[in-house]
User: Fold these one by one.
Assistant:
Number 1:
Amino acid sequence: MHPAFRLGVREALGAQAVAMAATFIAFGAAVHAAGFGLGWGLFSSGGIYGMAGQMVLLGARPGASAAAVAGSLMANARFLPMAASLAPLVRGRLAPLCVPFISITPWAAAMRRLPDLPAPDRPRWFIGFGVTVWTVGLVTTAIGHSIAGYLSPPVLRLLLMLNVLYFALLIAAGVARGGPWRASLAGAVVAPFALLLPEGVPPAWGLLGASLIGGTAAFLLRKRP
Amino acid sequence: MTEGWGPLLVAALATLLLRATGLILAWRLPATHPAIAWAAAVSEAALSAWVVLALVSPGAFPVAVRLTGAGVALGTFFLTGRRLLPGMATGLAAIWVADWLLR
């Protein structure tokens, strides 16, 4: 096993694995409550691998397939710019293997970690990290599905909050280190305006709008080299 | 419930294409290219917007409870030398306690 791959695996088994596990246990339980089988839950966690999109599909009304797919894609639309910003860091023959693992958790960790690693090691680190948290997602989806009957609604609600706290701390750490504070601040400032959208507009539109407006403003205000 | 498989398969494939498209579009661009800087800024903004909306949107816990949890998590995080797990644990405990106190 390549040392960079092993390093990625090791670094994935920290706070992010705990946050992922909590979220996917709650998702597994929600899949069970919605009447779907374990196979459906596992394919959703492994194939979509983006919780916002997974939840949109899970909550879709029967017969609204096209709307469910569109809503799921909209909720995970951020994967496109995330993949684009990751591309220069994982460029090479291993890059295609990185594609299925581009999701919030691996992307956020990679953007903070990869610049410190030698270029040839970066894709291997990302794949090691990505495979590990992806596997954590699958295993904990199965756990959540099988113990759904034992989890009370308050516990499920708390589990879902863990991921929010994890990313709040990750952003705070990045800002304190002098990271991309303009973009983080702009996204945070614009986000509450999404709550003003008229009723009936899917929440994913609000998130997408806040990301585009906040991110573009931060980009325009950036300090040019 | 077999009807959920069709949308799931299509959504999974489309999400994979979304990721691949991002990587392909930026494949030949240098790391310093403005398009990469824009994509990174939008992605970082998406992350913080998602966190803020999760904290202030109507949801399972009152907004005050969620903000208390986030505040305690951040305080612990910085007081413990930027350690994530203690921050997450105390934040979660604060949400549980605040929710219990408010009910």
Number 2:
Amino acid sequence: MSREPLLKFTERGIYCSAANVYLDPWKPVDKALITHGHADHSRWGNKKYITHLDNLPIIKHRLGEINASGVNYDESFNINGVTFSFHPAGHIPGSSQIRVEHKGEVWVFTGDYKTENDGISVPYEPIRCNTFITECTFGLPAFKWRDQKDVMHDINIWCSQNNEEGKTSVLFAYSLGKAQRLIKHLDTSQMKIYCHGAVFKMTEVLKELINFPDFNLITRETKKEELIGNIVIAPPSAHGSSWMRKLVPYATASASGWMTFRGARRRRAIDKGFVLSDHCDWDGLLSSIEATRCENVITTHGYQEIFARYLREEKGLNAISERTQYEGENLNEQEDLSTNTSNT
Amino acid sequence: MKQFAELIRTIDGTNKTNLKVQALTEYFKNAPEQDKLWTIAILSHRRPKRPVNTTQLREWATEISGIPSWLFEESYHIVGDLAETIALILPSSNNSTDKSLSTVIEELIELRKKTDDEKKAYLKENWLGLNYYERFVFNKIMTGGFRIGVSQKLMTRALSNATNIDKDILAHKLMGSWTGENTTYNELIFEDNEVARRGKPYPFYLAYAIEGNIEDLGDVSQWSAEHKWDGIRSQTILRSNEIFIWSRGEELVTDKYPEFQSFLKYIPNGTVIDGEILPYKNGEILNFNDLQTRIGRKTIGKKLLQDVPVVIVAYDLLEWQGKDIRNLPFEERRALLDQLVLDTRTKASIQEPDSDFPLLLSETMSFSTWDEMGEERALSRKRKSEGLMIKHKKSPYQVGRKKGDWWKWKTDPYSIDAVLTYAMRGHGRRANLFTDYTFALWDNGELVTFAKAYSGLTDAEFRKVDAWIKKNTLERFGPVRSVTPHHVFEIAFEGIAPSKRHKSGVATRFPRILRWRHDKTIDQANTIEDLKALIPKEGDLI
């Protein structure tokens, strides 16, 4: 193994020296392959972006005028003799894993991923590889997800209870991914969906790809009365802001993997926490790793040291951890709204 | 159990006090009597003794989950709550139980007598037979401390709604040494008899810190001031030729302070005194640290009694000649108390001229201006007090923490600039956040630990420090991380004394973070020398 590794963790990001490209770099580079549209994976300032076709409108919406091109899933392309291809990651619409093959060696970088079919993203597919670079945001056995349909059932019941009590249901969710997942599966037979500006604009972008039930933008003109008893989807940063005043009386909830912890919900002063994540749970991580039949695992963002140790000691894998600047499903939910916020 | 788990889930699921009270009220109206009793017992920290220790709980949960024990421990550090960790890592289940809360508790009480194998089998059966939330509640009943934001006060309010009994009367009924095993709901709440009343303390009246300007309290002549002594707030009950001493934490501590048995000889039955237990020798108050050596001990040896004798400094009289006098004005209660202490000391000095009777009076002071009172407050440190207590002369003795009639006017705390060196994850609502910090001061070019603190920052500041710690960890020692010395915090504390047990040679009392000194670099932090200079000198004493 004296040969230079195919992918290296550098100051700027995950680097393929053979092709001179970076994967989800955290500092500006010449050529960046991008797994998905969340801010910590697709940063501003790269000269060239290559990503999945469905992710193009998303990153253009977020980053403005950029030089970007799109590829299909399973479509390989060659840079300096290195073969790259994008494969579904199931994380959010347009999200990919990136497969890198060079001289018979295959590496896969997962970006963020989940194994459950969420109904809006192309479902995750395991890719055979030698070295698997996996996120592990929820890499602890304490994290076990229930089926989406059960969680959505609970959310819908909660919303209709609030409706009966004359309260508006305010659901906090990332404006890209989680928000659309909720909109897609909320029961709109009795209630209407209203959106914060950031959520509305992103959902408008994704409307081209996915069929959604009707959703409305809350504007200055929106009357307080028309919101009562309905459902509002807002980014976590809206919690406690003056924007919320129009929604009174309301009950608040957050949909996130972190809602597993009672402390995380209480810290945020939210009425209700629903455990719904766009990342793998413990079993999802383990089954994915097994399905890739990899020999080497590199764990990144999350409980990477703990997870790598488990893989080494209990699964006999050659596992190490690397530090990155990805934030996973950020516990503090300080979503960067600077590029897509709106005052409405 | 289902009903109780649902109650806990509802309370835990809201931040609104009214909804919590509403849920509790409904529960107290509808639950079976025996379940109500146990609910009150659990929420007032009277859970039955745990049938298994936490080591066993961890071991068995780890085994059933099929994970290595180090992974359980790592998970526990992150989740920050043992009951929750166990409920989360066990295999998922959608089962539920029909057993009542009191049945489960009776089983847990029975379990104490069983062998380890039987205990393990019982736990396994119940863990796998319960859903996540019931499991969590089941574990909490064993490990104690539901941190769900239900204070005794809130529970009493709900119980009052459900029973139509005045909440102050209920607060009194819920005090004392009853347990779920030795009483019934009916007896506890509705019956009123001499036997039940015998050793029962009154709820303590607690004060808030003064807000704004002291002058806003109005006419200074209406207020009485006394020093706020730094010991253990206590209630001494003399009834039916027995003495009971309760701490503010509702712990019966009579046996820890045998010197007070002599009260029985001189103080009449039907007397209840509110006062402070202080370590006191040769006419001087000792350090709180000295008292600490007595608090921890189960048995109090002769030497300890000689080294750290204690006294009660009396603040108030709550019961006199068998009558509850809490509604008399403060100045009248105090007149009775002053006379009582004087008479008692006189009687004792005649009978036992050589011994120091361990009952003193907390002297009340009147001032003609607020400035004069301020001057007395400035002397608090020298008098070994924490500041002043200001009480309205007409005030009744109220229940719990109330604003208006009594105020704390504490001295400004000591403070020193220290460097953050270690961090640990918090518990409860701070789970998975690094919020428990260790601070160090310079000593000949080295940083020496001097205090731990985990309060005083805002949630937003804690998040910032947490994020920084996660990126700047040097080493991990189990749950503890050492971090690059970089941040300076101003640490406040109430008291300071030399100590052999502390590495720095100094013990501080109630250290907490005053502010984050973004403006300071670590070389501008204080030294151990600076800290030691704050220790009051003998010559300062009056």
Number 3:
Amino acid sequence: MGSTACAGGPAIFATIPAMLTCEHIVKRYGAHTALDDVTFTVPAGGIFGLLGPNGAGKTSLIRIITRITAPDAGQVLLEGRAMTADDVVRIGYLPEERGLYKKMKVGEQALYLAQLKGMARAEARKRLKEWFERWEMTAWWNKKVEELSKGMAQKVQFVSTVLHAPRLLILDEPFSGFDPINAELVRQEILRLRQEGTTVMLSTHNMGSVEELCDHIALIDRSRKVLDGRVRDIRRQFATRTYRIEHKGNRVAFANALSYTGELLEHTEGEEYSTARVRLAHDSTVNQVLRQLLPAVEVHGVQEEIPRMNDVFIRAVNANTTVPADMTE
Amino acid sequence: MNKTLLIIRREFITRVRKPSFLIMTILGPLLIAGTMVGLAYLGMQESEDHLVLVVDKPHVVTGKLRDSDKLRFFYSYEELDDPAFKASPYTLMVDVNEAILETNTIQLFYKELPSLNVQRTVQSELERVLEREKLRVNQVDPDTYARIRTALNVQLFDIDKGGERSYEQALAVVGFGFGYIMFFFVFMYAVQVMRGVLEEKSNRIVEVLISSVRPFQLMMGKIIGIALVGLAQFTIWIVLTATLMTVGTAVLMKDRLDPQQVLAEQQVTGELQAELMKEAGASAPDRNDVMEVVRRINIPFVLTMFVFYFLAGYLLYSSLFAAVGSAVDNETDTQQFMFPVTLPLIVGIVIAQMAITNPGSPLVFWGSIIPFTSPVVMMVRVAMGSVLETPWQLVLSMVLLLGTFVLTTWVAARIYRTGILMYGKKPSWREMGRWMFYKG
């Protein structure tokens, strides 16, 4: 198990070394099974989305990865090696429920948390000063946390999470509680950290940020992993062979031309162009459709409809809730 | 730096820096010493002067009662009626009836209830004068009477101690005092641990912390850090209290404890002076007894044992309190769990109280051996010094206490590490029991 962790993983990850591998993780609390045989790989250097409805088991999984609790079965590999207690210094964790000592001064508190992550005091102080200057927080150093606004405290906590330059950064709903300006600041910071080689694991319900930021995801529902892989591939996997075709022409002409090659789902006539949504018949290709259309209508554009992550999420979870076989369509 | 040390350091420094620590540390001894010195001082003071009108119907006491600082006697042969007494400057009126030598009863009228001290002074003055009168009437020679009169002074001896005089009773009282302070300290600091755990849990910082350190390190760091706060505070208190009480006693009691000066102030006759000296001499053994009790307390031994039992007892209880703090979401919910955890300490106090009257009872023996009560109860036996005759009992008690501390800490740590991550509903005892078997 010390060698390559990717051996058993999906082929698409084969070329990227794994930062984190969860192998057959099981966690039970009494009669309740919080995680049931969860296996997935987080490739190094990217942003990984850990998705799932509330209560699916995400927090339990994160607590196992951060070594807050131990799994009942299975193991966690960090960069190909079984994790040890010392590995916690290579992980940075921002929990969903944020919290700091209210009565403690900001600078002192950040120093304390950094030292608990194994940093030397002097080094921690130096890096904190840099961060505080970059995020214009220097004036807060001697303030107590209770004197700060919620957003300010969140910034302090984010800095504390990343200060020790962790190899793996786990952020649970990192944007909640931030105003749009600070949310953008955090987003830029996440991208910068990825640039510098940090692997980021993002747990969020915000599917917009998943599409925008994540390279890979795993979806957990009811204690089980129901989906994982590259975001691009998953969205494609959930595609319904639906195309948007812009053309100059009316509905009747279009429908006639389309004939048996596809089903016209929707047709809207705009000022200049009309837009048709077409789902291909199961035995036809987009080229066949175009061959049918071209003699009859003037086609201006063709684009496949790739489902939003939001739809993927809902469909995957619903499929898991009803008949698991439906999932692949 | 080691992570546990970092946690200890934070717990210690944040607490010591708090204004409340400074206030408690400085005011504590001031309050204790102030109260003790003040009480002693007040006890010696009469609130106001008393002018006592003695209605001497049989004409036996007139002119014979001795005035004191706060008490002056005036005489009349006829009593005043109520309105006249109210209007008079007298604060007390003593009615000595015709048949006083047979009835031995007087009536004391007052406007405001005089203190027991004043009542006793009036009583003893009258007794002294009436006694003389009876001696005269019955033609008994006062010297003969003085030889006949018998006031027994019972001295206790324990035959196991080579016929030395025994001070067990008094020492037991001192020991109970130590036991009570022990109870107070253990409880106070254990509750601080509970509050600290609860604070981290309700702040939600605990999840950040235990992604860096083991829950056990966090719990022990807090417990040890607060123990150091306790030791620091205790040390400062001992030093300050001792200083203040020495200084305070010296200043306040200077005039009062010097019999020569008291006598000089009273400007009494030679005869009376001699008599007073005799009385002062009679009360002297009491004072010597107190000195003797103090001398008999092996102070280094008692303090060492106090520190040991405080630390071990605190460690035992604070881990349980930490478990309670971890299991609930807010301070109101702690009540239900605190009671059973505190109960053994209270039982300890009750047993220690019994030890005052019966230090040798089996209950006291078992109480001083069983770990949950031993920190409090053993202090009584330690102060009495009797435990040194059976060192094995002391050793057994200490070993059991340490062993139990390890056990409760293990149990508490298992509840703690699950409890700090559980939010929402208040757990039942059964659930807390189940937490112990979750895989950490």
Number 4:
Amino acid sequence: MRYSGFQVIKQVLTGHRGWIPAWRDPEPKAHYDIVIIGGGGHGLATAHYLAKVYGHRKVAVIEKGWIGGGNVGRNTTIIRSNYLLDGNEPFYEFSLKLWEGLEQDLNYNAMVSQRGILNLIHSDAQRDAYTRRGNAMILNGADAELLDAEQVRKECPFLNFDDARFPIKGGLAQRRGGTVRHDAVAWGYARSADGYGVDIIQNCEVSGFRIEDGKCLGVETSKGFIGAGKVGCAVAGNSGRVMGMAGMKLPIESHVLQAFVSEGLKPVLPGVITFGAGHFYVSQSDKGGLVFGGDLDGYNTYAQRGNLPVVEDVCEGGMALMPMIGRARLLRMWGGVMDMSMDGSPIIDRTPVDGLYFNGGWCYGGFKATPASGYCFAHLLAQDEPHPTATAYRLDRFRTGRMIDEKGVGNQPNLH
Amino acid sequence: MIIPHPLLGPRDSSEFVYLGDASLIDRPDWQAENAAEAFYDYAYLRGNPAGEHHELWYHEGGDRSWLVVTRNTVTHEISKVELARDVARAQGRSK
């Protein structure tokens, strides 16, 4: 069923009795051309682009819980393409362009809102660094705008400009950045993929891989064996666990990142604001809640919850940046498990096992990457070679010394 | 999280800095035939288990000792804490 204004009017006139489920709930077939493990944003996007762009219809997405129940439902919904390095920026700009056309592509309202993102500057050195970053973005076709303190004050008069430690001296703005309704991304991709005949199989947990003579023949699941020509793994957060079943050690640690929502407030924030120096970033949801977060807890974990020292640290950062939020009450907080890679950048690549492909290591940047990640993973699965914007995301880059380390902190995942 | 320090008793985890997997104690022999491969494995690859995990914590806000903490990465339960020094010596390291 195609969604449209006409459809809404038709359904209103018939008492809303004609709506049908947005995707089927099929039982797994014995064999597919391609099986994707992980019904999150990246897995579902992969299925959509495999079907729509690369013409593969015998595809299944298998998910241990319900689709969109993992990190695509647990992030802070920000999209942007403000990266510095050549290995990253073209990929994230590709992603932002896909976001801009996503709703028309999917025929689904994902509430893509390009309300802009502002990275704050507190020192001359930081201004130099952000100038360089802005230039790198522009060279790669993205938009970037360097603001001085007065311009920031005009747009965000409520910030604490004269903080003794981190006075605000300006900012780097990307106007095309913004936020997206995160659950709708999973649902929109699922509905579209399903429409092309992709089987989305929920409550089906992978318990192992069937690998013979170095070739992956399919996956063992809680609903039995599912044969596959190729298997793609897109389970970021749990990559270590799943790829461990294929006997692989990854350059990844799993960490928890916490996020928070305040009670609903009148519109106060024009867009996304990041206060990197104070470990705090914030936006305002369409319902009015301030959505904010900060640093990782910093230790290996698969628990989707964090600890109190980070809650305190994040809230202190918020108070330092915009003291006006002091009276707002915290409504909810939660944690999501991140694949933290050894250089802070993701992996989309073949693996040493023939027929087994890996997508992961998204650190805390996975949500904004969803469309391009799906597109590039679909390209890799369909054509057995990396998409032009994802050529640097090799699994073996740590062996060959071709790291993509935006922050330059080395192989310490909790610092990226 | 509260980490039961072997010398100082229960201490809040915010006094500590986390380094990572305790396998980082086992630095490979740089003169070995397979040193390049061994250092790649040592520096970049992690077991990353869901369950019991041996890991290095540094008591920066305290006595500056290195600890090997055995902690469950699913429940955050800590089952064992040793001085990293003792663990390394038990593995045959001189210091």
